[in-house]
Amino acid sequence: MENKTINEFVVIKALEDSVNVIGLTRGTDTKFHHSEKLDSGEVMIAQFTEHTSAIKVRGAAKIYTAYGEVESESKKG
Ligand code: TRP
């Protein structure tokens, strides 16, 4: 795997309280391995690593990646 992929960062800014940033494992099994709770206005800067192949965001947040920006939405509406 290219190191570029491993080094990539995503920036997640919570737009409400209790946004969860969940890391999913790399490899044959895809499982949650870490969940980080962000409150409104809090920012997390995360990398894809040897252990993390995917990141799930639950709740309303702005997500900035090398490919552009996207907004996740709140389930509460
Ligand atoms: N121990 C994890 C790892 O090195 C930490 C981590 C990195 C993480 N990126 C993440 C946790 C994204 C949650 C979301 O892979």
What does this structure look like?
By secondary structure, the chain is mostly beta strands. The protein has one helix at residues 3-7; strands spanning 9-14, 19-25, 32-38, 43-47, 52-58, 61-65, 68-72. The chain has a single domain (4-72), classed as TRAP-like (Immunoglobulin-like, Sandwich), CATH 2.60.40.50. The protein contains one helix and seven strands, in the order αβββββββ. The longest helix is centred in the first third of the chain and has 5 residues, at 3-7. The model has no long low-confidence stretch (mean pLDDT 93). It binds tryptophan. Residues 21, 23, 34, 36, 46-47, 49, 51-52, 55 line the site of tryptophan.
How would you summarize the topology of this molecule?
Layout: H1 3-7, E1 9-14, E2 19-25, E3 32-38, E4 43-47, E5 52-58, E6 61-65, E7 68-72
Antiparallel strand pairs: 1-4, 1-6, 2-3, 2-5, 6-7
Tryptophan is lined by residues 21, 23, 34, 36, 46-47, 49, 51-52, 55.
Tell me the series of helices and strands, N- to C-terminal. HEEEEEEE
- How would you sum up the global shape? globular
- Molecules bound to protein: tryptophan
The first-level CATH class name: Mainly Beta
Task: Profile the largest sheet.
Answer: 4 strands, antiparallel
User: How many DSSP helices?
Assistant: 1
Number of domains: 1
Mean of residue pLDDT values: 93
Give the DSSP E fraction (strand runs of 2 or more residues): over 45%
Contiguous uncertain segments of 5+ residues? none
Gap from first CA to last CA: 39 Å
Helix content: under 10%
Radius of gyration, taken over Cα atoms and rounded to an integer in Å: 13 Å
- CATH superfamily caption: TRAP-like
Helix/strand structural class: mainly beta
